[in-house]
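Team,

Forwarding the record for the chain on the shared tracking sheet. I've put the sequence and predicted structure together so nobody has to dig through attachments.
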Amino acid sequence: MRLFACLLAMWLDVATAAPARQVKHVPDIALILSSEAYPLRQAADGFQERLQALCRTGTRCPSVIALSLSEMEARSLRHPRLFVSIGSAAARHLLERYPTAHQLHLMVSKNTHSAPSSSPVSALFIEQPPGRLLDFLHFLLPDRRRIGILSTEDSQVFVELLEGHAQRHGLDLRDRMIDDTEGIGKQLHALNRSIDLLLSLPDPAIFNRQTLATILLACYQDRIPVIGFSAGMTRAGALASLYTPPEKIGSEGADLALRLLHGAAPFRAYSQYFEVTVNRRVAQALHLHLHLHLPTDAELDDWLEEMQ
């Protein structure tokens, strides 16, 4: 975040001291941060650190303006060669205000990304690709075939993708639509009677600070392992998580931004980087009831190397 704050301060100093020069300068990249949420700050730092590292190797260093979304909304910004947004709020703002501009959206969900397919907009999604996600489930818990999912209307795009892959993996996907998170524990107990594990999707309407403890407790009471989508979920009580750290999304975004500046075609993709965390204490507790036998850390490392 120090890099982001420094760049922002430098830009504001220039804008205040020399407004005439501001009009003339058109940056290569405008980096727009949706909010000060910690994961978004991590992604912003990862983007700028990677960009600086590439510049030190002799790559032509693009000029960058770093702005918060509120700063951007308060000013009239000339089109850079590329807008880079971090978070869904900034992505939505850019699509509405600059629909024909070249853009790269980071830390956005495939479920809610609404850019037309013909637009010059690229995106790196926060979800794991369905095939990779289900391969991980099979590797981690090969005898668990009935996969439970909690979803809303906003997450149906990804659920449908999962359903197609689940059939090819021989898995039975059981989706429970959640209209209201009030009483989510009771709804989850009902689902848990027909599933072998719960696969969490990054839908903030379901998995958030108000609901996560209730979800994890209900599953623990019913002896249902939970697979999460962040290291924080594993620490909180999920059995394991498969995820791409925000700083890795930012770093990969810097590489992709340079490719776009050099004329690469727009794309929509998942990150090629991912990590696994396992909560061995939860595994030990569940083993007493379910006789779980998880892969060792060495076996997990081998799987990660093979998949990447």
